[in-house]
Amino acid sequence: MKTSVLYKVAMGMAVFFLLAFCLMAATYHIENGGPSIISFFLALAIGFLLNPRLKGFTYTIIIFAAVATALYYPANFVEFKSYKLAGLITPLIQIIMFGMGTSMSVHDFAGVLKNPRGVFIGVTSHFIIMPLIGFTLANLSGFQPEIAAGIILIGCSPNGMASNVISYLAKANLALSITITAVSTLLSPLLTPLLIKLLAGSFIEINVLNMMWDIMKMVIIPIGAGLVFNHFMHGKAKWLDKVMPLISMAGIAVIILIIISAGRESLLHIGPLLILLVLVHNLCGYFLGYWSGRLFKMSERDCRTMAIEVGMQNGGLASGLAKGMGKIATVGLAPAIFGPVMNITGSVLASWWHRKPIKDTEPEVVALT
Nearest 5 degrees, angle CA 39-CA 246-CA 243? Predict the structure, then answer.
């Protein structure tokens, strides 16, 4: 069967399941709409996967399917035979960070020498803009302290590999993006706990030393192991380059599934406002990141990089830190929502910039490998 036919079948099924869900909602039986809305997202994901123009949004749709599953069947993802599934979050993050390490090399950090000014502006902007926006939104939200603290937490988390993918698609400076990500990650065990203590200390109790160790074991050690693996196995384990992104995406989906299930009641109560604040947080990061580059007269390509590196955060790490504090159902909600929102806005921004030509005359910086 041709791909075009399969695409039409998948999209037709998506429309059917969506109409079924809307009918249940209209007849006040929305509590029975779980199978319909979950099937809608899965059929839509298959349809997007079969369409070259929509393929990049497939993972985001799968995340929505995970969120819908968690909202309708939370009990299945909180505990399994007396084992708290939140215990899976840390090892999943470590696997994701190991995968990030296997895609990097020591040359990525050497980018500081090639473009120290750009790296300094990017890292400084990242650790100033997003934490302060998070602090402002948390204070304006009126949420209970633990949920408000989650907004600050995601603002203080370093960016991850997703920003590098979006930078590539947006025709930004990929080499600069990778270097900013690498340096921000390296600084995160020190700066992230200190910023959270400074900005969220009035909301919840923060143990800086414990948080530093959590970041070391969740981020630095796995990435270090990935770097070592890449150094000795470069070119010898090509299958890993294909498998790790899939494992990482699956891991993030499971993490979101667990967090949404644990915090379902709180999310149903304050969900729309929290989603709005997370969206504002994300968009303000893009906007202020871009103009921080313009302020220092950086090229259009580098300004795009600044926007993406500042606006995109490491939701997985923030979720792991929330779990380490024993507050996954409250502090972990904002990070769990930020991930899907970031993927949507980042993909849209990348698509828009991809179609908008770079007017700068200077040559593009060669990506580091």
Answer: 145
Q: How far apart are CA 183 and CA 50, in angstroms?
A: 37
Classify strands 83-84 and 79-80 as parallel, antiparallel or unpaired. Answer: antiparallel
Q: From CA 89, how far away is CA 163, in angstroms rounded?
A: 21
Q: Residue 258's beta-bridge partner residues?
A: none
Q: How far apart are CA 93 and CA 115, in angstroms?
A: 30
Phi first, then psi: give them for residue 339, nearest 5 degrees: -55, -60
Tell me how crowded residue 209 is: count the other CB atoms within 10 A of its CB: 8
Give this prediction's pTM: 0.82
Q: Are 319 and 144 in contact (CB under 8 A)?
A: no
Pair of tokens at residue 343 = 């993927």
Residue pLDDT, tens place only, 96-149: 888 877 777 767 666 666 778 888 999 999 899 999 999 999 999 989 999 999
Do 242 and 115 meet the contact criterion of CB atoms below 8 Å apart? no
**What confidence score (pLDDT) does residue 367 get?**
42
Q: Distance between CA 307 and CA 283 in Å, rounded?
A: 9
